[in-house]
Design brief:
By secondary structure, chain A is mostly helical. Chain A has 13 helices and no strands. In chain A, 73% of the residues lie in helices and 0% in strands. The longest helix of chain B is centred in the middle third of the chain and has 32 residues. Classes of the chains: A mainly alpha, B mainly alpha. At the A-B interface, helix 1, helix 2, helix 3, helix 5 and helix 6 of A face helix 1, helix 2, helix 4, helix 5 and helix 6 of B.
Chain lengths: 303, 327
């Protein structure tokens, strides 16, 4: 990762200060601020409109725009009740549970498997290491779509189609190349002296991995874990192909997508349903933003 | 354990047993790794640590990838060999040409616009008092699913017939009405690819935050001395942008552009949720799904996936070469 933290500004002499202040003033002209505010509003307004609608009564949503809320405020929780109600057939609660069941193993398994592999690539000298590493690295270019048809056939043959297993296995596999690459970049930055010292003390590769590496790796594991969590929670394609039928395994995104098809005009259900599906990823994002951004930066800026 | 679980306790139990099974596999790997001794021990540890990865990737990525390439030369049922006919269909059939054309439009528009907006915004809010809050606003769409984003924007584009008693509930059509125009059925109007362009807006809305985050980090990495020196020379903000900021973040811009291009090629959820690929809005990744599930044409779906694969490769190679040159 080349993104270095902001260097501290050197001591500023009075002359420099005035020059810098002048430039700063010019840079933060009212036009620039206005442009920033306009962009921020454009980016927030669509979500805000639907959020507001999710609290308006069904009839009000269907007859008037959400902006009329400000002249005629009506608030209700009925829409949220409706998406969890059995009678409406939306049953978001079930799908919500499915999403969680899909996500937890789909994050834990690839992260730990990738950590072991990244350690082996960085600190264990075995024959064929370089070739294997390049192969794993190169597999990042395989688009999901290329694998789906044979995998579907395979899962049917194995008799696990329609269970959670295809989703766990698929999400785990698809995450590995990037996870190994990112964790490897991080792990090889750890000073060799630390590992050698542990070896001198008689620690084997298992002990070194758990005692030395794991504690140091925690931030990187968290970064990738959050990334993977959001990716799996928000996935639609893998779910559509492997969890098509009914509420036994399908995640919340799938049910929401179905609703847009079958109840495209039931805005009271769509609005509240959308926010139920958003609440987990947005909470994760807001709480762990720092790690998420780190994961993003590690993924896109050269390692 | 491999049966369908239908109640919540059953599902939780299944998840727990999956995790335990996985922990047991790892336990076995680690047990053997801790037992190997001698000169060749590093070889054994390496292979043991990589065993799960190699197995998963071979079965889940390499084999299916090759199998799909093979399958793309077969007919709809996957039984009769038909040579390159599927590829011929993709490049001659009128509907599929529209799909290819739409994909080109997506890839030409999304990366530059999302990167441009991200860059401008990153510069505008840099070092301002509300920086982290302002960034979070643009970044938030990245955290939600494209399905949710699709619903949010479908609501923005919602159309109500133009009658005196009917009010618009979609903001865009309301703005058109306020400006004295007539409401438009935005999602089904394909004149000038209007509906495709409106879907592209949604994807840019999702991706600009990604571009902004990466570029903002790159901007902050520009040494303060350079910026300070330029300021002392009294350069205008514009010159500063062209002469200092832009050249300093050039590699990052390339990385962001190419990453977005790859993501755009694979765009699926937005199209699926908002139009289902109808009204001439389909793109390759969506058409793949339609052919696979709706039309049950395995061969054509496989060929579309291969086309996608082939289109992604040059972008990634370019990306890696740019980064290498800089390093």
């Amino acid at each position: 990762m080349t993104v270095t933290p902001l260097t501290t500004t050197p001591e500023i002499t009075p002359v420099q200060l005035s020059a810098a202040a002048v430039a700063k003033k010019r840079l933060s002209s009212p036009w620039a601020s206005l442009a920033a505010i306009v962009i921020a509003i454009l980016w927030t307004l669509p979500t805000f409109g639907l959020l507001l609608s999710s609290f308006r009564p069904e009839l009000a949503i269907k007859r008037t725009g959400w902006w009329t809320f400000f002249t005629d405020p009506q608030v209700t929780l009925d829409n949220y009740r409706a998406v969890f109600d059995n009678d409406t057939g939306v049953n978001l609660g079930t799908y919500f549970v499915n999403s969680l069941i899909i996500c937890i193993p789909s994050v834990l398994i690839p992260v730990s498997v990738a950590a072991l592999a990244a350690y082996a690539f960085a600190w264990v000298n075995f024959r064929g290491k370089n070739i294997l590493f390049v192969a794993v690295f190169a597999l990042q270019i395989v688009p999901l779509q290329v694998t789906l048809i044979p995998l579907l056939t395979l899962f049917v043959k194995m008799g696990i189609a329609g269970t959670f297993w295809p989703l766990w296995l698929a999400h785990t596999t698809f995450a590995l190349p990037l996870a190994i690459y990112l964790l490897h970049n991080f792990i090889k930055e750890i000073p060799a002296g630390l590992i050698e010292a542990a070896r001198v003390d008689g620690a084997g590769h298992v002990a070194i991995f758990f005692r030395v590496m794991l504690p140091l790796l925690t931030p990187a594991l968290a970064a990738f874990g959050i990334f993977q969590f959001l990716w799996v929670w928000n996935d639609l394609l893998v779910a559509l192909v492997f969890a098509g039928g009914g509420d036994t395994v399908a995640p919340i995104t799938l049910q929401l997508a179905n609703l847009t098809g079958t109840r495209g005009t039931a805005w009271h259900l769509l609005a509240s349903g959308t926010f139920v599906s958003i609440i987990v990823p947005v909470t994760v994002f807001l709480l762990l933003q720092r790690y998420f951004v780190r994961g993003l930066l590690a993924g896109s800026v050269k390692g | 354990m491999f049966q369908t679980a239908s109640t919540t306790p059953e599902k939780l139990l299944q998840m727990l047993s999956a995790l335990l099974l996985f922990a047991a596999v790892l336990g076995v790997v680690l047990f053997f790794a801790s037992r190997v001794r001698g000169k060749r021990s590093d070889n054994w540890v390496g292979y043991l640590y990589l065993l799960p990865v190699v197995l998963l990737l071979a079965v889940g990525l390499v084999y299916p990838g090759l199998r799909t390439i093979y399958q793309s030369f077969f007919d709809a049922s996957g039984k009769a060999f038909i040579g390159v006919d599927n590829y011929k269909t993709i490049f001659t059939d009128g509907d599929l040409l529209t799909v290819l054309g739409n994909t080109v439009v997506w890839v030409l528009i999304v990366p530059p616009l999302a990167t441009g907006i991200g860059l401008i915004y990153a510069i505008l809010v840099d070092k301002s008092r509300f920086e982290s809050f302002a960034k979070a606003l643009i970044f938030l769409p990245m955290a939600i699913s494209m399905v949710a984003a699709g619903v949010i924007w479908k609501f923005m584009y919602e159309y109500r017939p133009d009658q005196a008693t009917v009010k618009q509930i979609g903001l865009i059509n309301q703005v058109i009405v306020w400006l004295g125009g007539k409401p438009v059925q935005l999602m089904i109007t394909d004149t000038g690819k209007l509906n495709t362009l409106l879907l592209i807006v949604v994807f840019i809305w999702i991706q600009a935050g990604f571009a902004m985050t990466i570029l903002s980090a790159a901007i902050k990495a520009i040494p303060d001395e350079i910026v300070e020196a330029a300021r002392l020379d009294g350069v205008s903000p514009w010159t500063m942008f062209i002469r200092i900021t832009l050249p300093s973040v050039r590699t990052t811009v390339v990385v962001v552009l190419t990453t977005l291009a790859i993501g755009t090629l694979k765009v699926f959820d937005v199209v699926r949720t908002m139009t289902g690929g109808n009204f001439k809005t389909s793109v390759i990744a969506n058409e793949f799904y339609s052919q696979l599930i709706r039309a049950s044409n395995q061969g054509l779906a496989a060929a579309l996936a291969v086309v996608l694969f082939v289109l992604v490769i040059p972008i990634i190679v370019y990306n890696i070469r740019q980064v290498r040159q800089e390093a």
